[in-house]
Write a structure and sequence with these properties.
With about 250 residues, the protein is mainly beta. It is about 10% helix and about 60% strand. It is built from 2 helices and 21 strands. The strands form 2 sheets. The chain has an 11-stranded mixed sheet, with no helix packed on it. A 10-stranded mixed sheet has the order 1-4-7-3-9-11-13-15-21-17. A hairpin with a 3-residue loop joins strand 5 and strand 6. The protein is globular. The protein starts with a helix and ends with a strand.
């Protein structure tokens, strides 16, 4: 009985000793502002609203005050463009031993909570991060490695490049969609798609399509799709290597 009690006490003590720093910014912008962010080993939560500013809250947590203090949130800003970059003492940037498990550095926990004007456009670059995004009405570009996430309410041109990632994506208003995946699993739920051209291929991967009668051409170590519905005005293209792509047309 003593061991579980001591373990619980240890965990509670460790949590109680964590140091938290909160950074908050409200940046007045144009309604169609271009917003970009780089996330490394972080959590990113983005929503939109009827606001005339970008509202940013960053939660930084670690057991050591020095590590928390060293995290720098750099923001370049204007009415039309806002860009966020995070800097801290990262051993990955010096010698990349992490992929073989030799990096025992205790990274700070960094979580972004961001509210954008609904008409904004968005660009995200992320590494080893978790994304939860309700997309703005402008163009959305996602470029990530070793990350996972869910992206909803896409209503404009959309592009995702994922290396070793897993994503669930909801397209509410279909425009042009481009998916590039390497060793990734990507699922797209596409609503109200009546006029589009679907084109792409996989290499050592699979494409699965529901809700639309699409002929898949089998090729050596891969598959090819070429399909047109209606006027074909919107383009859905994909290039997947050693991964899976699931397209669900929900008309």
């Amino acid at each position: 009985m003593r061991t579980p009690i001591l373990l619980a006490f240890f965990l509670l003590s460790a949590s109680a000793n964590a140091v938290e720093r909160i950074v908050q910014e409200t940046i007045p912008v144009n309604p169609d502002v271009r917003f970009s962010i780089e996330s490394h080993r972080g959590e990113l939560e983005i929503t939109t609203g009827s606001v005339d500013a970008i509202e940013i809250t960053v939660y930084i947590e670690h057991d050591e005050q020095e590590v928390v203090d060293e995290v720098a949130i750099n923001i370049d800003r204007s009415l039309s463009d806002v860009a966020i970059e995070v800097n801290y003492d990262d051993p990955d940037e010096k010698v990349d031993f992490d992929f073989i498990g030799l990096n025992d550095y205790d990274y700070p926990e960094i979580r972004f909570v961001i509210v954008l004007p609904d008409a904004a456009s968005l660009k995200v670059e992320a590494h080893r991060s978790q994304l939860e995004i309700a997309a703005p009405a402008g163009r959305v570009d996602i470029d990530t490695s070793r990350s996972t996430g869910r992206i909803t309410d896409v209503r404009n041109d959309f592009k995702i490049v994922s290396t070793r990632g897993n994503y669930d994506i909801e397209i509410q208003d279909l425009h042009d969609v481009d998916v590039e995946g390497q060793r990734s699993n990507v699922r797209l739920d596409i609503f109200a798609a009546t006029d589009f051209t679907l084109s792409g291929e996989t290499r050592r991967g699979d494409v699965m399509i529901t809700g639309e009668d699409v002929v898949t051409q089998n090729r050596e170590r891969g598959e090819r799709v070429d399909h047109v519905r209606g006027s074909g005005s919107s383009f859905v293209s994909f290039d997947v290597e050693r991964g899976d792509l699931q397209l669900n047309f929900r008309n």
